[in-house]
Here is the input.
Amino acid sequence: MALFTWKDEYLLGLEPLDFEHKDLFECINNLYEQCRIQTEGGEIEDCLGQLHVRLVAHFALEEKTMCEMKNPHYEAHKAEHDRFLEEVTEVVASFGTTPDEEHVEAFAIRVKEWILTHITTTDRQLVTRGR
Ligand SMILES: [Fe+2]
Here is the structure.
């Protein structure tokens, strides 16, 4: 069973960002699934790498969008992204040296919770306040 399902209530109405949010959901589900079916460490490492790359690209796009919209919450929002990316980078690096599937499965759940909270609160500010 997928870790989580996309719901249209998560849409911001900003198409490129919504598209990438959906894509991130799939990426996290995929990572979780790979851990659940206990595939070889290499596949989990690929999924982790993909998630990392997509998060970096997505945050960059979101920050560019915020600049263009002159969003007053830019600094705080970017700081949230940066803190989370540090956490993700650490997990990716530690999996590279000491693979631990159970830790990654718990991490997939942590990423899911972070993304869900972030999309429904901080990202929501892109289309409510400061637009
Ligand atoms: Fe964001």
